[in-house]
Specification:
- By secondary structure, the protein is of the alpha/beta class.
- The protein is built from 15 helices and 23 strands.
- The strands form six sheets. A seven-stranded parallel beta sheet has the order 19-20-18-17-21-22-23, with helices on both faces. A four-stranded antiparallel beta sheet has the order 1-2-5-8, with no helix packed on it.
- The chain is globular.
């Protein structure tokens, strides 16, 4: 990848037929010897380095990102007006690039909270899960009684400094559904949060007559004894349920506060890898830098979870090459076929993603977006592929099937056990995912400077030549360890993370 700072365009691979504008390039800007920009090229967008006839493949990262839909001349701006999707053969080459992981002899440590069962937390919350939307307001009223407000200096938990907060996880489903995949996924998600290591205690609030009965949730997910539960109808209404919920929290606060941090190996970290509001720089700066940090964490014995299946579509053949077995690689390919069918049934197509904001930032097709997005996972072996919200038990780099929509994807990853989120963004997504702290990584300096109160790391330093991808990745890795040890992220300073809880609402609503 050539990102020499003295050139207006970036070449990512010798076989590429387009270059990427480092900044806005006026018409007439030199692109390559004998080639000038035929029009203004916006920052992060593509310019052609050779002629393309209709149907010719357009390459970025040395991979196909689309096909010319009209003739393209050298120097032309390449985007939605002349680049589209098309069929091409992928070589899955099962496992050919898998290789032994070079573990470090002395793993890094962080200051974690060791639970009685030996699991290690990065935060210490009390959680309230809801079986149905009908109990959402009651759950929120209970949590609000303990809500810190740094802007007015209100802190109901001042006497409990080791408790990070009380979180109500509300959602829009739980009834109007049958005994189907939708119910099973909801229960698996709720159970993942009920068991989450970053919760010291959990209460479940239901209405009483919903399809997703708490008794069914407890039995199906083996949660008996793990959480306190109550339903509004049995308790006698809103006020009595809120009073009982507040009493429960007060009852467990002192016990929850009796934790202390101690040095533990980085192998106890499981990171959810996310990107949202991506732009043309995402696959050049923040995503590869997070990939370098991911490789470091895997080498220290930890786990990283790549997700957003529709945003891996078209790049899956590069991940199957790193699969530890054909079975693991085949499961990923099978997911892609399922998503093609799922999108068709919804009268949509997978190239409906990228979003308008992604396209404004320079991303043209889902193939291009996917190739940049997968860089978050670095270069280590793909060790397992999981269903949405399933418990992640393998170490190393794993994949979880989720939609591309960030809140839904991250909710599944955290339900699977992620105790931290690393989230790259080029346009400026604001996001949190309690009970896991979320680190925000900006792809470019202009956005970072505009939204510095929300961004934790500026990866635009790679574009300016101030540091390499590896150096930025090392900086991210060190921040991961500090945040895991208790340092607050920018999203935590704004109390993000409860409203973003969003289980996948798959299936019919009736």
């Amino acid at each position: 990848m050539d990102i020499a700072v003295d050139t207006p365009f970036i070449r990512l691979h010798p076989e590429d037929t387009v270059l990427i504008a480092r900044r806005a390039a006026p018409e007439g800007t030199a692109v390559a010897p004998g080639i000038v920009a035929a029009a203004r090229i916006p920052p992060g967008h593509k310019v052609a380095t050779r002629a393309h006839a209709v149907g010719d493949a357009i390459k970025r990262y040395g991979q196909i990102i689309g096909f010319a839909t009209r003739p393209i001349a050298p120097g032309d701006w390449v985007h939605v007006q002349n680049c589209g999707m098309g069929e091409f053969t992928k070589d899955y080459a099962w496992g050919v690039d898998a290789k032994p992981t070079l573990y470090v002899p002395e793993p890094a440590t962080f200051m974690g909270i060791v639970r009685p069962d030996g699991r290690v937390a990065t935060r210490n919350y009390i959680g309230i899960v809801t079986s149905v939307n009908c109990s959402a307001h009651v759950a929120s009223m209970i949590a609000d009684a303990f809500k810190r407000n740094p802007f007015i200096g209100n802190d109901p938990l001042a006497e409990y400094p080791n408790v990070d907060g009380v979180v109500a996880l509300t959602h829009k489903t739980g009834c109007g559904m049958g005994d189907n995949d939708g119910l099973r996924i909801l229960r698996r998600t709720l159970a993942g949060f009920a068991r989450h290591v970053n919760f010291s205690h959990v209460i479940a609030i239901g209405l009483g007559c919903e399809v997703n009965q708490i008794s069914g949730l407890l039995e199906e997910q083996n949660l008996a004894g793990r959480l306190r539960n109550m339903d509004i109808q049995t308790m006698g209404g809103t006020r009595k349920t809120v009073e009982a919920g507040i009493a429960f929290v007060k009852e467990v606060l002192e016990e929850s506060n009796k934790v202390h941090r101690q040095p533990v190996p980085a192998s106890h970290l499981t990171i959810a890898l996310q990107c949202g509001g991506s732009d043309g720089y995402s696959g050049i700066t923040a995503n590869p830098a997070l990939g370098a940090a991911s490789d470091l964490l895997v080498r220290h014995g930890g786990t990283v979870i790549l997700s957003e299946t529709p945003e891996t579509y078209g790049a899956e053949h590069l991940l199957t090459r790193r699969a530890v077995s054909r079975e693991v690689g085949q499961k990923l390919v099978d997911l892609m076929r399922w998503w093609e069918d799922y999108a068709a049934k919804g009268q949509a197509e997978l190239n409906s993603n990228p979003s308008p904001g992604n396209k404004a930032g320079g991303l043209t097709t889902i193939l291009e977006k996917s190739l940049g997005a997968m860089a978050k996972a670095g270069n280590t072996n793909l060790t397992a592929v999981y269903d949405y919200a399933a418990p992640v038990t393998e170490k190393g780099f794993v994949f979880m099937d989720t939609p591309g929509y960030d809140p839904v994807a991250a909710t599944g990853q955290v339900a699977g056990g992620a105790n931290m989120v690393c989230f790259t963004t080029g346009r400026g997504s604001v996001f949190g995912c309690k009970p896991a702290p979320s680190i925000k990584l900006a792809t470019n300096s202009a956005m970072y400077e505009r939204m510095e109160e929300d961004m934790d790391v500026n990866c635009g330093t790679i574009l300016s030549g101030r540091e390499s991808v590896e150096e930025c990745g090392q900086r991210i890795f060190e921040l991961i360890l500090r945040v895991a040890s208790g340092e607050h992220t920018k999203s935590e300073s704004f109390d993000f993370g409860a409203a973003e809880f969003a289980p996948w609402p798959i299936g019919a609503t009736m």
